[in-house]
Amino acid sequence: MRRLLNAIYNGAAALAALCMVGLLIMVMASVVSRELGFNLRGIDSYAGYFMAGAGFLSLAHTLKKGEHIRVTLILNAISKPWQRALELWSLGVASLLSLALAFYSCRLAWQSFDFNDVSTGVDATPLWIPQLTMALGTVVFALAFVDEFILEILNKRQSTQNAEMVRSE
């Protein structure tokens, strides 16, 4: 099960990297087209879609690598039993919030598909297509939070403090 979950997180990160490459291509194409005196219609919208996709698809991998910003000021000031209770509470709330975000992201993509909603730009892209990256990213993010919550309950969660965090606090 652990290998499958890690493969899902890494797969989402790989898709985020592909979105970054797509963003680079869109920006380069936009710059080149302006320099050569012609306009590629809708290219700015596609750059935005790729940027959003990269952001959402990378959320779970970033969480699992311990790279999300954590405010540990209170955690470091309380005893171990209270630290564990606060971690459980925080991960429980984060799991619920991420599940709600995933639900509404999927619902938004489905409604855009159902209503044939298109972008208001000149490209008239069906909005459910770029919204799929948001929906997929939030679903994997919710899965990662639930995974962290279960690992914390089972007392098998790895410490997420990396060397950069230790130096900066």
Largest beta-sheet details: none
Could you give the distance between the termini?
34 Å
Poorly predicted sequence stretches spanning 5 or more consecutive residues = none
**Mean pLDDT score:** 91
Helix percentage range? over 70%
Structural class: mainly alpha
Shape verdict: elongated
Q: How many strands in all?
A: 0
The share of residues in extended strands comes to under 5%
Helical stretch tally: 7
Reading the helices and strands in chain order gives HHHHHHH
How do the helices and strands line up, and which of them pair or pack?
Layout: H1 2-35, H2 43-57, H3 59-64, H4 73-77, H5 80-114, H6 128-153, H7 163-168
Helix pairs in contact: 1-2, 1-6, 2-6, 5-6
Structural features:
mainly alpha; 169 residues
Explain how this protein is built.
This protein has 169 residues and is mainly alpha-helical. It has one domain (2-168). Helices cover 75% and strands 0% of the residues. It contains seven helices and no strands. The longest helix is centred in the middle third of the chain and has 35 residues, at 80-114. The model has no long low-confidence stretch (mean pLDDT 91).
In short:
With 169 residues, the protein is an all-alpha fold. It contains seven helices and no strands.
